[in-house]
Amino acid sequence: MPNSKKSKNGGNQQHVTIVPVEPVKGDNVDTVAYSSRSRISGESGHVIADVQSPHAKEHRIIFDRDHNVFEFRLLDGSSKHLIVYRLDELLSTTCFPLKIKSGIPVIPTKPVTSDKTLYFNFVYKKDKQRWRLKQIPVVFYTTSERDYWHSLIDTTLRRVKNRPKNIIIFINPFGGKGKAQKIFKDNVEAFFWLTPGLRYKVVLTERANHARDYIVEMPPEQWSALDGLVSVGGDGLFNELLSGALLRTQRDENRNIDDPSTHLVTPHIRFGIIGAGSANSIVSTVHETNDHATSAVHIAIGSECNVDVCTVHQHQKLIRISANAISYGWLGDVLRDSEEYRCLGPVRYQWSALRTTIRHPIYRGMVQFSLSHKEKVNPKDQLPPCLEPCPVCKKPQGDDNYDYHWHAEFTHVICCVIPTVTPFTPHGLAPFTGIGDGTLDLALVPRISRFHNMQFMRKVAMYGGKQLYELDPSLNCYRVTKWSYQPDSDQADPGVWNLDGEILEQPKDEPLHFKLHPQLISFFGRDAAMVKPTKRSFIKKRKSSIVYQ
């Protein structure tokens, strides 16, 4: 390879360094965030090649393996044109060009290999939330040199520890008005096909809880070889994956998942969602968008964030698992009513909201809870007196399991595990909680009028939970770690829960207990390395420097 150079620490090879000796400040400095997860153990030094652009302009490409970045430098004798990419942002390299539609690659039917050209497929942030792919062609002087770089980069990407190697994709063929399979084929699959070393299997779900049962009954060798589960559907399908993985993991670790006090074990796999449902709340919260290609990019490059989970128990038995939002009262009744109008699609929620508002359900019951250490407000200073008769108030010592209680008539009882971004709450439903901050937001809205309830829901949609709380600090919202609810037994209808978009029946004479498990699962989501993309500098006739941090 006459035009390639390789230097190691301590070697005598001279090359253009991209790490300045002295700190550099000013407008011409490009800050490249360093991501430790992409560092390849045992690899160091620089690999350098003089190449050409498709327009025959001379360039130099440097692969800095100490910092895992690529530098593309235009060499014209008098000025320098410099661009730097992180290894995190490189999806793959190919020896053939790709057809790319609006930043989304298309799997070629018959790839046409170029003679000396290597195509770098980088992902980039198109706007505030959406990620796309672009291709940079680099022409080497010999085919053998091109093949060396292709092999080197392909091997390096396969060794990046956080990139998935083996995933199962569950598709709900009825999701997204029957378009889930088309969404996967047109906007997602090409990213997985391009990722070096990634094997993926597609499973079409045939019934409710199919995905959960598939995971629980999976052979041990297949389960241990997995490192990712992806759902293409709504929040309900993702909940099946979550439930199956947690049940499987606790069973294998001999943990009693039915006991709320059990410290649960984190599954060894990560979860991903391609939103193809009605609300797509979880994926919209984690990625700040329901864009399908963005979700695919984060899965392919192995982005990772940790997410809280809430378990629901009755009689010391696990009945449901949530990683989104749990609501009772008006919101629960809206979901129950909307089930009769599924043929209307997402508009059914507006129709059922109107019907439920006219009916105006009120439920009387007891809420008990324990605060997180992050909560600074004392509920005793805010909550009105309990309705009489209150069974807990009559006890001299109260309830040993919870620190606070309130017996009242409720229009809403809402618990958010994550901020809960939906098309109806674009600014998020939760005032305080984050994706994995170790708290639940518990909002208690007592009996209010129809008009007040309409105003309340309108403000939540317009401002989000956080701004609404700032506008009205008297709202009863607390950061908790566990809580319970029990309806009064003399009510004919005990109500239902809206748990991650699915109906959960409230037992008439028994309480439900809700327990937080902080950062229990890992998600293919925005991590620290990807939230703020590297700024690009296209500088001509001025010297540019690169600073690593």
Automatic annotation (TrEMBL):
What biological processes does GO assign it? ceramide metabolic process
Query: Where does the secretion signal sit in this chain?
Result: none
Give this protein's Gene Ontology molecular function annotations: ceramide kinase activity
Look up the domain of life of the source.
Eukaryota
What Gene Ontology terms describe where this protein resides (cellular component)?
membrane
Q: Which Pfam families match?
A: DAGK_cat
Q: Which residues form the DAGKc domain?
A: 162-316
Q: Which residues form a coiled coil?
A: none
Q: What is this protein called?
A: DAGKc domain-containing protein
User: InterPro entries, from UniProt?
Assistant: ATP-NAD_kinase_N, Diacylglycerol_kinase_cat_dom, Lipid_Phosphate_FormReg, NAD/diacylglycerol_kinase_sf
- Cite the Gene3D superfamilies for this sequence: 2.60.200.40, Probable inorganic polyphosphate/atp-NAD kinase, domain 1 (3.40.50.10330)
